[in-house]
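FIELD: query
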Amino acid sequence: MNTLDYLVLFGTLLGVAIYGIWRTRGPRDLKRYLRGDGQTRWFVIGLSVMATQASAVTFLSTPGQGYQDGLGFVQNYFGAPFALILIAMVFLPIFRLLKVYTAYEFLGRRFDAKTRLLGAGLFLIQRGLSAGLTIYAPAIVLSTVFGWSLNLTIVCSGLVVIIYTVAGGSEAVTHTQKYQLGIIFAGMAAAFFILLAKLPAALSFGDALTLAGGFGRMHAVDFSLSTHQRYTFWSGMLGGFFLALSYFGTDQSQVQRYLSGASLRESRLGLMFNAVCKIPMQFFILLLGVLIFVFYQFEQPPLVFDQAASHSLAQHLPTEKLRALESDFSAAHDEEQRQLQAWLAARHAGDAPGAASALASAQSAHERGEAVRKQANDALTAVDPQTKASETDYVFITFILHSLPHGIIGLLVTAFFAAALSSKAAELNALGSTTTVDFYRHLVKRDASDAHYVRASKWFTTLWGLVAIGFALSAHLAENLIQAQNILGSIFYGVVLGLFLVAFFVRSVGGTAVFWAAVVAQALVFALYYTLSISYLWYNLIGCVLCVAFSLVIQALMGFAPKAPAAPAAT
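FIELD: result
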């Protein structure tokens, strides 16, 4: 990065932060601090919901997922539009009617205090850990750009986000997210068009997609019925539906966003904005990763994308062995490039057999290169057993730093930080508000002033930020970050959703039955996750079904109907 990049980075971030502080100046009571001013329009809600979900992990790691495996990951989101429609029809009207601060207050009114605390507790555990991943992602960028220690970068960037969140509250988060998301989209669009311009002149966009398909990167939909296949149409429609229903409908970081709407109509329109835009956005980000894969078939990529790991390898591996690996990798790539040039010439000449033969030879050379890359990663693991992170998390940032012009580099790095600030601030704000409303105010201090609860919320927000930093320090042991984030959510979300579905639709079940059903269901989900090798998306469905089924069985065994008040009808 040069002076222009730094000006873009710090100028943009400082401008957004100053706007957030100015926009939310003045004293605020608990309602305004936790839910905003209640006048937010649908477009701002839609962008805020999208920005909360689309963290730095999305924009940093998803292109790497597309680079590695192609478009198949988009199936993960196939069920999301239907989930958002159901939330707008059923969940949202009840939340607004009851005027709750958190979604878990509804569980307390429908069932009892212990069920409310269980739902809130499961959210705090899952979201508290997940927040660590949203700190880890921008720390990768900082450590790569500046050459800083990754752990030190995690701590410093985490503290910055904590200060930003505590100072602003929910209102600042909502009002700044629309500008942060604009920065993100501008940066990603710039990267996309510059990438297209950097592809070989003779390679058209259609050629690039055909080549990506030849390497298996364009297979977007898989109708396989195998539960062991991680991403399929069915796992996306069913497991993805329950994942999105739980995330957007019961996760306080999202509920808090759309409860700030000026009216039920505004909140519903904000959710529908996401129902329409979610899949196209994810497809575009994955396609960007696929095109980066095509780019690196003509431009030699580094042997190890993680530059810190590459330096470690150079320091610990014998020079002769490292040079041999680099030589073998270069030779394989040169052969692949020659065969791809032959493929392109044969394709343009209409020589189908020649094109097929050249493509097969290019694929063979690519496999040899990947085998060499695996040797390098195995050698790195032997040197440092802690190195288990997927290299795909470093693909996009490597492309940005080495292939994009200055100014655009600064814009993309700014986009990652904008994504980190928007999603992380929303998460910490939700964690702080849930701890304050559902635990502290409910169990510890019931009749304090609003000012006291605002201070408590700020302290709890800080505490959860520190917890997230601690988890981020171990995130290098995870898979590709975008997958790790969804795996973590899938383990918890199904059971939490089961609590809410029973509350909304099963009037005969009371608090005691659903509480123990959720406890048993969550324990079984943990056991199944560690013993089965099925796609993690299915655990959203499994956890939800187990919670609902066990609640019915336990209520029947108890032999009496609950006296808990019924949930108000959806409108």
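FIELD: remark
The two ends are 53 Å apart (CA to CA).
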